[in-house]
Amino acid sequence: MRVRTLVALAVVTTGAVTALAVGCENKHEANQQQQGGGSGNLGASASLAELMKARNLSEADVEAALKTYVPTGKMDEYYIFASGGQSGNVDVIGVPSMRLLKVIGVFTPESWQGWGFGGDSDKILDQGNQGPHKIRWADMHHPNLSETKGDYDGEYLFVNDKANARVAVVDLKDFQTKQMVANPLAASDHGGAFVTPNTEYVIETSQYPAPLGREYAPLGQFKEKYRGVAIFWKFDRQKGRIDKEKSWALELPPYTQDLADAGKLDSDGWAYINSFNSEMAVGGTLEGKPPIESGASQNDMDYLHVINWKKAEELVNGGKAKTIAGMRVLTMDVSGAEGVLTLVGEPKSPHGCDVTPDGKHVVVGGKLDTHTTIYDAAKMKQLIEQKKFEGKDGFGLPIMAFKEAIAGQVEIGLGPLHTVFDDKGNAYTSVFIESVVAKWSYKDYKKPVEKLKVQYNIGHILAAEGDTVSPDGKYVVAMNKMSMDRFLPVGPLYPQNFQLVGIDGEKMRLLADMPLPNAEPHYSQMIKADKIKPLKVYKVGTNALGEADPTRVEGGKERVVRNGNKVEVFMTAIRSHFTPDQVEVEEGDEVTIHLTSLETAEDQTHGFTIDMYNINVSLEPGKHENITFKADMPGTYPMYCTEFCSALHLEMTGYFLVKPKKR
Ligand code: RUQ
Ligand code: CUA
After folding, report:
1. How many angstroms separate the alpha carbon of residue 592 from the centre of ligand 2?
2. N or C, fewer C-beta in 10 Å, the chain?
3. What is the pLDDT of residues 286-319, one digit of tens each?
4. Partners of residue 345 on adjacent β-strands
5. CATH 2.60.40.420 fits 559-659, yes or no
6. Which atom of ligand 1 is found nearest the CA of 162?
7. Residue ranges lining ligand 2, Cβ < 6 Å
8. If DSSP codes are grouped into helix, strand and coil, which group holds residue 222?
């Protein structure tokens, strides 16, 4: 409305309106712009109308632009942490500008950050190796921010890798990955990473069933040998690391577990995991059997897994678990009998599993169902306490009656998936097939009050602090799988499309499109910017783990130490030289360069590479790196700084000489 008036007025020309329209707080400046406009007495207001005409912009476009434009020198209000999908890394985006601020190297080497090219980050990437395989990619699905009392605290980010069953910990003090844990039990995961309300645990649930510990078993033994599993990774907040020793797991039936969420407030202590393919179809298309997708869609109901994790923790710590592949696992016979693991039906091929901000309900979508189903956490707790079940599944797990466990169902549309929440009791569900965001009230379970078309095939959705105990409202982002006619064509592989939606007005408003050229985002989270307090510089000598490195180098103490065929180079970097700048070793030597940046000024980054040795590290101010490699190629190799750090950046260089062995 404001803009409608504004644009109308703009044509009539008033300085004040111009000032508003150009986002300029200084009226005097705006008036000057008018005078310098060169269009006689038309003024900038008329120019705005002309500009709109020339660029074919509607009033709604102008309003959207004004709502999302962040002028130079001003900051965004929120951060989005988006999963980079198959890129294996995290995208950090500012809202409302939808500008990409950073890509955090996590599972995949990323050379700008020197992530995975010879420095200490290699050791972190190696923590994620599985068996003999150095895995260097990921199918990242669900970033989850650390929480305190169910609210984002801005300290850590956890992410999962669906393809190789791993979880990583990113420290938001420096936006760097600090740890990776490889799942010892499952070969794929999906229901993770989800944190409990005080980040006691990071939950990682398997996706495709397989024998625990990844043993071999023929598909004919699916029911007997194949299993799902949920790992509860214990997070040590003091250390900022997952403590593998204190972590444990729950054996699950071989249904395909999908998404998960932890209870909060009223439902704290509980976790919910949905599943599909309770038919346990395994395909066999060449043998004339139905393909998995149709075999998996026979039953009307799959199962929501309702987990009392506080009780499970007690049982595990009381010695009731069995050790499999080095992990304590509570088996189904114990967890079924003790009320730790209970099932309840959920409509066919569910997806999305989202606990409401008050912790009272769990919302589940359905890929092949038109409803969202709203489960009542308190009712389910009561049914479990009173052991009121309608039967057992094929693994002896108790099943609650669907009708008694739910609070209601809402007819949403075709293919409801994920749900997020605002501060007014509204839920926003991504509706894949219909390509809409459906807004509905999770208080009265009526039909959607509004649907907004998005472009196209929205998979995931996020809202400002939308899965905490106190969502902010304001923004929703539709994460769309397809973007056919939205961006300049770039060949047959299209970008994904993030669409920012304003939800503070009466109606939802589409505000901006952002192409995501960096693979398919799944889950993402949006956090208020002032909750994140990153370092500006490191304390000189800090390594990739965030510790004062024992081999950090002081200025003036640079040296080369030889011990047999082991050569240690203690090197420093400061504008605009490396000391030493000549290093000569013998072919076959094992070389370690301990390299400290002595810089203490903000944004004074250097890079360091030795040509042809696949070595590249990033030296943010104060950073220390340890680079170990074998000097196996005799020759003369320039080493140089890869970041344009000063006027003498090109001179920030030296030689690494490898003297050939006598033959
Ligand atoms: S979440 S299949 Cu809906 Cu991992 Cu993307
Ligand atoms: Cu240091 Cu360029």
Report:
1. 21
2. C
3. 999 889 988 888 888 999 999 999 999 999 999 9
4. 303
5. yes
6. 4
7. 576, 606, 641, 643-645, 649, 652
8. helix
